[in-house]
Amino acid sequence: MKNQEKSSSFKIVWISIALLLVASYVFVFWYVKTKTEQATYALSAAEISYQQKDTVQEIAQSVIDIEEDLKKIDSYFVGADGIVDFINMLEQKAGEQSIEIETSNVSIVEPAEDLLYGESLEVVLSVVGDWNDVMQYIRLVEGLPYALSVESASMSLMEVVTEEEGAEPFLEWQADIVVRVIKHQN
């Protein structure tokens, strides 16, 4: 009987130890699982935060790029305070081509209903000079960095008589040019 009691006590101790080990294993498993989930959650939150930071930086760079593009686009239009400067530039370019220029009319043209942009500035010019110089001036005007078009250009050969005694009359070309440029809406 004593053997049985010892054996029973021994079994109870072993069962208690086994239960304690199983409970410890379950606790350790639960603890590791919980800590792993917390680490995964923290890692996911850090990745999301990093991605958001990248997205914010990309958006900020896009805004900077868009601002630069808008400034460039704005430079293609003549502002309300830049009309005189635009006309002076047209006249200066004529002087560089060694041709005479006269600005005969400047007007603001309202847009047609189907156009996406607003008012245009219309400048009527009369230039006189050598055929090559006049043609080069027209090409130069068409190539200016503005949203402009040469609406019409008519050229005629004219005889120029000078008032100098004994001077022979000579031929020059006269071009009447209508230039239209989009006016910036302020």
Quick summary:
The protein has 186 residues and is of the alpha+beta class. The protein has helices at residues 2-74, 83-96, 131-142; strands at 100-109, 120-129, 148-160, 170-182.
Short key terms for the protein model shown above:
alpha+beta; 4-stranded antiparallel β-sheet; 3 helices
Structure characterization notes:
With 186 residues, the chain is an alpha+beta fold. The relative contact order is 0.12. The protein has a 4-stranded antiparallel sheet, covered by helices on one side. The model has no long low-confidence stretch (mean pLDDT 85). The radius of gyration is 43 Å and the shape is rod-shaped. It has 3 helices and 4 strands, in the order H-H-E-E-H-E-E.
Q: Strand-and-helix sequence, N→C?
A: HHEEHEE
> Mind summarizing the main beta sheet?
4 strands, antiparallel
Radius of gyration: 43 Å
Judging from the principal axes of the Cα atoms, what is the shape?
A: rod-shaped
Quaternary assembly: single chain
Give the strand order of the largest sheet, numbering strands 1, 2, ... along the chain.
Answer: 1-2-4-3
Query: Strand portion, in percent?
Result: 15-25%
* Weakly predicted, low-confidence segments: none
Based on helices, strands and strand pairing, what is the structural class?
alpha+beta
Measured distance between first and last alpha carbons: 110 Å
Strand tally, please? 4
Helix content: 40-55%
Mean pLDDT: 85
Number of helices: 3
SSE map:
Elements: H1 2-74, H2 83-96, E1 100-109, E2 120-129, H3 131-142, E3 148-160, E4 170-182
